[in-house]
Hints:
Family: Belongs to the sigma-70 factor family. ECF subfamily.
Oligomer: single chain
Pfam family, one: Sigma70_r4_2
CATH architecture of the largest domain: Orthogonal Bundle
Order of helices and strands: HHHHHHHHH
Number of domains: 2
Domain RNA polymerase sigma factor 70 region 4 type: 137-189
Structural class: mainly alpha
InterPro entries: RNA_pol_sigma-70-like, RNA_pol_sigma-70_dom, RNA_pol_sigma70_r2, RNA_pol_sigma70_r4_t2, RNA_pol_sigma_r2, RNA_pol_sigma_r3/r4-like, WH-like_DNA-bd_sf
Strand content: under 5%
Protein name: RNA polymerase sigma-70 factor (ECF subfamily)
Amino acid sequence: MGAVTRPARRPEGDSGDADLVSRVRAGDRGAVDDLYERFRRPAFALARRILAEDTLAEDVVQDVFLTVWRDPYAYDRSRGSFSSWFMAMVHHKAVDAVRREESHRRRQSRAEDDLALTAPTSARDVEDEAWARVVSERVRTALSALPDAQREALTLAYYGGYTQREVAALTRAPLGTVKTRMLAGMRRLKEELGVVAGASAGGALSGPAAVDGGAAR
């Protein structure tokens, strides 16, 4: 990308992300590189978790960063942190990719002569996937009703793949505060989701934040 002047220190937290976005808006390709280094790992982890395929996950990540470069004004700081917005876009594009792949597979399946033999298993799989999507949608709806601090912590940890310590660093909050926010957020999710909460907490909200070293305790 050519020689660029980089800051002496790597930006941290939401203010650092906002500074990088401002540089992207000014046409600084080096700022995109900085954002890529900062969010590549959690973005890929989230996309890979949804798509279960490395190539598709990498395509999604590249697409998101390309979107940031082409339309940096899509991010509105008044609506929340850049990290939450960015990871939400990764999630959205990954889900769209899943739908495209499923649509393609369905078209192929209809053309196969042995469709009748595979239909019972396929029907069960489709039913399971449909239920998983219902749960995931309810979780996202419940997350949107949480206070900003709780929603941000849970989104970064479970959708973004960050540990609790990393969430604390990104949000510039004490580790104890992050743990409290996540605990309070999970309790509110259970209240909102009722019976679905158990499945969503173990599925849609499963992530590395449960363990430290791979995640924080």
